[in-house]
Amino acid sequence: MRVSVSWLREYVDLPADLPTGDLEQALVDLGIEVESVVDLRESVTGPLVVGEVLEIEELTGFKKPIRFCRVDVGAANGTGEPQEIVCGARNFAVGDKVVVILPGGVLPGGFAIGARKTYGRNSHGMICSAQELGLGDDHSGIVVLPEDVKAQPGDDARPVVGLDDVVVEMEITPDRGYALSVRGIARELSHALGVPFRDPADAPAPGATAEPAYPVEVRDPVGCDRFAARMVRGVDPTAETPGWMRQRLTVAGVRSISLAVDITNYLMLELGQPMHAFDADRIAGTLVVRRAEAGEKLTTLDGVNRTLSAEDLVICDAGLPNALAGEDAGVPISLAAVMGGETSEVLASTTNVLFEAAHWDPATVGRTARRHKLFSEAAKRWERGVDPALPLVALEKAVRLLTDLAGGTAGEEVLDIDHVAPRTPVTLPVDLPSRRVGVTYSPDRVVELLEQVGCTVTRSTDRLAEDPGAVGTAGVGPGAGAGEVLTVTPPSWRPDLTDPADLVEEVVRLDGYDRVPSVLPTAPPGRGLTWQQQRRRAVARSLAERGYVEVLAQPFVAPELVDQLGLPADDPRRPAVRLANPLSEEEPLLRTTLLGPLLGIVKRNVGRGQRDVAIYEIGTVFHPRPGAGTPPAMGVDRRPTDEEFAAADAVVPAQPRHVAVALTGEIEPAGWWGAGRTAGWADAVEAGRAVLDAAGIPADRVTVRAGERAPWHPGRCAELVVDDVVVGHAGELHPAVLAALELPRRTSAMELDLDALPAAPLAAGPTISTFPPALIDVALVVDDAVPAADVRAALVEGAGALLEDVRLFDVYTSEQLGEGRKSLAYKLTFRAPDRTLAGEEAVAARDAAVAVAAERFGATLRGA
Predict the structure, then answer these.
(1) Paired sense of beta strands 287-291 and 216-218, if any
(2) Per-residue pLDDT tens for 501-522?
(3) What CATH number corresponds to the domain at position 83?
(4) Does 526 map to a domain?
């Protein structure tokens, strides 16, 4: 929200000498985030003058249209001769008055202006656009001053274009929609500075008449609980927007379009009430307000042909037949509360204008805006809440402005279909702000502050509310007023005030956040980390030490991700929780696997030139509970019951914690020290082993075997098994998945369910033998389908207690071994705790180990 201080001064008596720093601090103290306070008098330095275009020469032979202009700037250039300026804009003609900055001037951003040769001509200065002057975002053309401007060539242009003002730019939080208007900001400043406020909406306006201004039928009173309209006939279509209005719109970042449309935008900024202007002659029949039929089409004012959803609210022309929605449903001519349609927009020839001011459901408008990616200024205000008492006042102001500036006759008929429900009073114990905040607020002070906000307050005594034993925050007890209850009816412009906590916040905000003491609570004695926390830290440290970089991915995914990952139709990871209010309509689901967002980060890094990527994440996935219904509605006025908690928990999705890695490129870089090594499936498997080791799972309880699971390559996928339970998978990703996600070849990944791992057993101290080991290598030939981990388990089982360690160090295939056969070479370490082993003992243990492998898998010693 951008607004000039001069506009605010019309409704609030700001001190004449108010420093910009004090103005900013006053807004910040009210909880309004101030982006900037710019004194426009200081934004442009040097000669900025009014100029009159005398001649325009079109230059040809360039890639874009270029004009060489001679501009009268009076005596501002020191010579009185016309100023020669090269300009690329096309929206001005000979005789127009424009804004010129002469050599030596500096525009916002430190852009110094001088004389230079360009496009074969000498250019002395620049003709300025609104964006270049810092007055708005419009850079489509230069500023052409209205004909009624009295300034002469050479006069200072600052007062003419509003550069003698102060502009405040604020970021308004979603709960304070009333602050998206001059009315709202002026009221807030009156609270902060203790100065009088004049409400621009406090103006007489005629009510509904028996004869409506135009026939309208509202079929959805929930989505539209108020619809008002007025007609103005016979306006002058050539009337232009006055300079003062155009200037204020420009400062606010709104482009001037036409007088009728500019009036609606002006009043939206002033009052906070979005409006729409229809060309009454382009409407054929009754206006119908309804929900759209899925598949209906509407071309909005931005020229986009939009396909409507059944949730969208639309205004339709019943005079146009609609086969899809029914004969009397009409054809959509406006996407209600978001943007009008091309078929009924005000044109340069419009003489009869129908003004509409309504009140729309905020949630519906917000969903429509996100669905169509159409975040108009009107939609931004509607989804934050608009005062339902404004429509008739806004219509009266619009009608008066249009008839005063463009002539015409205002119709006496007023349409007002009003289904607005009265505000629900809120019961507030008068001592609740003191108990919640830790600052003593007297009952009179609480009432005074709430009435400043605009609330209607009734005081009463409720003996049931008294609690002499209550102790408030920071030692503040019930205090004065304990047992007294306020019945508070919030004003129509504050839809955010619905609960006692909201009223407490208003009391604290207006009384001053600086009065709230900064007292840190006493930290309770802790019991250290839980074993689950210790495990997560150990896993993260283990992966980081192996060169993986931790990332934090967003848990939101697109519906098409499951297809890109190649998940089968019956895969339990396909069902996903859909968010009711997603941050992005493209990613409305919660992830069921870490791999989707993780691989998206790999793709982003590779796309930016990072060819070697090794990342990991520890986070939760979300699995919907079968048959979960709707959670119970729970307010904030009391603690939910155990039954309500249980019902809510039954709907919450299961959220197991997973760990995943993804890697591509070189795992060991090449250099003068030797050739590098490309990351592969074995590295992903080793990452899984490292996670299990860091989690405290003994190696003899871990099995790594061949597996098959999307999105991994079926021939290069390993299952990670603990106590016969599959806890994860690792390996190279399927080529189809890599192609769908645009990832490099051989990209590998691992994902493991940390919550599926058993608690680590109590670790016993290692027994260290002082006797030497016996080292024996064995090479066993087995079928290619036999997992190496199963062969290892057989060797361990057969070797007995003397076996200290067994490690696979080579896998070998050749024609001599035969097709479908492989050789697995293991290094066996034997050691006795109490003596030096004799060679015969070690060989006997080796033979026993080989015998079990031979019996179980048909293994034979290579070369035997």
Answers:
(1) parallel
(2) 999 999 999 999 988 988 887 8
(3) 2.40.50.140
(4) no
